[in-house]
Amino acid sequence: MSDKVTLKEKISYALVNLGNIPIQTILGSYLLIFYMNIVGLSPASCATLFLIARVLDGLNDPFVGFAIDHIPTTKHGHFRPTLVVGSILCALNFLLLWFGPLMATSGKLAIAYVSYLLIGVLFPVMDISLNSMLPVMTTDMEERNMLSSLKGVVYMVGMFGLNMIAPIIIGNTTEAAGYIRLVIFVTIIVVVFSVVGTIGLKERVTQQPGDSKYKLKDLFKILVQRPVIVTFLSSLAYMVGMSVTNTMLAYFFTYVIGNLSLISVVSLVQLLALIPASLLVGKLIQKFGKKKLYAFGVIAVGVIPLIRLIDVTNVPILMIATIVGGFASGLCMPLSYGIQADNTDYVNLKMNVHAEAAVAALSSFITKCAMGIGGAIPGYMLAAVGFDAAAAQQPDGVKTVIIIGALVIPAVLGILGSIIFAGAYPLTKEKLEAQAAEMKEVREKNVSL
Question: Which of 34, 153, 368, 428 has the most CB atoms around it within 10 Å of its CB?
Fold first, then answer.
């Protein structure tokens, strides 16, 4: 069977990735301010909820990945059925997460805990299944790089596009009607795009007679393979920093800049900057390799926004930082997906097992753990300085902690993530070329059996 991916599959892959984006994007940017301003929960209660729920439910991701790896392969594929089921169930729970606490007359925090924990179980079914598709769609490195770039572009377009229209849909952050419109809009996008996109995908790389199923006791061995664990630690640091930034976004533009709608303009500028980077990433990989390029991108995303400290209310400086940082972000996202596929091949060769979902589970864990920690840090910081959603005038320390959360903390964590990856990730450009050749040889040998 040809390893070439058809145009129909590329369009379908773009659609299903668009369907995967809105849930975590909206949760990360608006759930905290919704729970505080509309539902009436305290900053400390929200921070504790995000931290406990996200870290705890993140621990189940490897087991979800194990379960997905071990379900029977159907005539529709191995990962496509779980992708459809997971998308629908996750969308329904997304509605509960917002409307449950909003409509309840009592026990609002308890409902928030239950629904937040539940989405931590259902989102990985959707997310892990999707992230497992890339390594099974093709083994051709150029095709993988193309799909990684496509995934990165779509992710960024979807995320920043949503960030542009979300403030417009919400309107006033102190009124419930705007949030209701946004949640319904997001739910429709998730279900329609995910289901339609999944139908058009094809799984080419299937288990061969020479492959073996790994056991639950082998799960830890898979997750501590050096490329896997290094990627995990580096990405976790980087994503926590980005999560802190995203959580502080609405607060920064509301209380520091004084104009929430400016988020839409900034998101558009960032989108225009990151698209060229995502399109060029394939060529840059050929010249520098994924390891060097990813380490550069991670540190650049964190450090470049620090120039805004010159004057945090200066819009031209904000735009310059947005353009340069957007280009760096456009490198990181597609690279992360390609690196995950490379790590899956490494595990396959090293342990003779197919563990696409187990490796992909770490991406889901990183996302949720980062959201938990990144959502908790701003909540605790705001609580410490006496933030009051109902107050017309905020304490002097509020602006300071918002600036630290939006700019300084992400920079420190970006530097840490880059150092970890550059210093410890073993798969250099040359080693990846050798690994790809070995994978091709093994596949051809198994097919001939």
Answer: 368
